[in-house]
Amino acid sequence: LQNMKMVPVPEKAYGSFFEGDCYIILHTKRTSRGSAVDLHYWIGNDSSQDEQGAAALYVTQLDNALRGSPVQHREVQGHESETFQSYFRNGIIYKKGGVASGFKHVETNMYNIKRLLHVKGKKHVSATEVALSWDSFNKGDVFLLDLGKVLIQWNGPSCSIAEKSRGLALARSIRDSERGGRAQIGIIDNEKDSPDLMQIMKMVLGERHGELRDAIPDTKADELQKANVRLYHVYEKDNDLVVQEIATRPLTQDLLQHEDCYILDQGGFKIYVWRGKASSLEEKKAAFTRAVGFIQAKGYPSSTNIEVINDGAESAMFKQLFQRWTEKDETQGLGKVYTTGKIAKVEQVKFDTTQLHARPELAAEQRMVDDASGEIEVWRIEDLEMQPVNPKTYGQFYGGDCYLVLYTYLRSGRPHYVLYMWQGRHASVDEITACALNAIELDKKHGDEAVQVRVTMGKEPTHFLAIFKGKLVIYEGGTSRAQKSTPEPAIRLFQVRGTDEINTKATEVPARASSLNSNILLTTSQVCYLWCGKGCSGDEREMAKMVADIVSKRDKHTILEGQEPAEFWEALGGKAPYACEKRFQEQVTHYQPRLFECSNQTGRFIMTEVVGFCQEDLDEDDVMLLDTWEEIFLWVGKASNTHERNEAIASAKEYLKTHPAGRDLATPIILVKQGYEPLNFTGWFNAWDPYKW
Predict the structure, then answer these.
(1) CATH code for 11-101?
(2) Where in this chain does the record put each Gelsolin-like domain (predicted)?
């Protein structure tokens, strides 16, 4: 804000903020429901009250112009929300002064600079300008002495590796964006090893007397404090503002009435204002003022974060504070999104697996490595270690677990490996991490030749289905461990999809009538019903019979849609509407595969597309990404740098996240090493030469 007017900030200066100013940030993100818009106003520590007021006013006006779709945030220097910090990957820099005092935002190649930046943070980095003196230093943080043509990074003795690398990323970003790439970076990791750089520091800061201060611990709100949520109803009575507490956790969505405004206090860590659709214009306008008044009344620090939310355009952070949150067109709360009711009938095309070797393009199209006749071994992750699974139960996967599946097949007389990492929907973060780490170890045991495939529960690729020969059963929760903590439900419902051994899987769905669709198995303590919907074919019915023997040892009863006995509906908690219309064909648009070179030599992750690609485009020192829509391949060259190799999976996830078409983040990611390419990869290339390398 300059002279109370909004003035655009040049893109090069994004992430640098003058402490004497206020800023407005508009952030738009594509989501599956359209787009998510966030509006932030940022308050510098030395900004005037007038500017702060003007910033709040502009945000309200912008919100009106955008018809109430944005989530609005009030951010205070040094206490920014995670959402805000996530926009500035390399960190935020606070500069002394302000626009009013004649400071300019970007003066590229300006070398007559002398400043000391105190860099803090591991995940979210911020750098504050501090006094040019040894007194500003401490043992636990990174400090950048910026002298224009030279940047010296001084690492405190008790800094973590992550903090050092974040500090370096920031130094590089200053060099590249503010100095046009023309500055030297020097690093002092241990003062004794860098006498020359220390000499420069002493020239600028003088000799150092006495000990350095100890590391200052970060003050962060703990989870317990954040869990303490309270909901207040806010309204005017005889010109007075009344704030009335109506509920503590667990909060439910029905507490929010469309005619009113509410304040949700998250343990003083963050304040949300929710504005009902039908609340008055006056009430909507007063949202920020009320929140600031609330903070003062509660005696919270003035830097407390505020988020203003409109009815129907709630942020994910806000929804997660409620026990369950249902969108208008969703039947269940967050965390479980079943798309029952709109199940696409996918035409199963019979294809001859014996043709795969002769026609690699068929392998690519059908997403099959081979004819699935190889050997399988399965391990479950238990106490973060690999535990072999009993071969009798191969094919049964539980949503509370993670599994490693090693598939071995012969090609030209020698073994090839595919390693699947299956991640359950309810597995802990630790287990998912352990699964990935154990996969690396297992790959090493097989000479680093395995193709690694990340499989998210419910998104199993065709070949994964095929190797279990029609016996793949996915249980929603629970575990296959010997000592189960919770008893298995008495009534379970499974949806069976598929027409033959190659394409069949059974998935557990909520045991209620609304889940019915095509081919269903209902197991109770007495009997197992095989329910066949009107659109179900004979082949599908046969596969369902095979699965029925796995999920239940009880008597099997086949029932047709429309001829259900009363006990059937009783087990499902009563009759209810379900998707009985003719299942519509799935629209699979013909997707042109795309190849990209992934590089981060410049310190930023950059993807360069190779149009009309062929095998020649895969260079030994590259990490390449091949996107075939239904899966993402990462091809790793023998001479690629370790950092790019280690970052490959993260890059693929980033690619899916930032894809303009709003891609499914659970798309399988397949890691392929040079020289060990499977057929379903080489089939996308014209005339692949297996002996090229």
Answers:
(1) 3.40.20.10
(2) 4-84, 125-197, 247-319, 386-465, 605-681
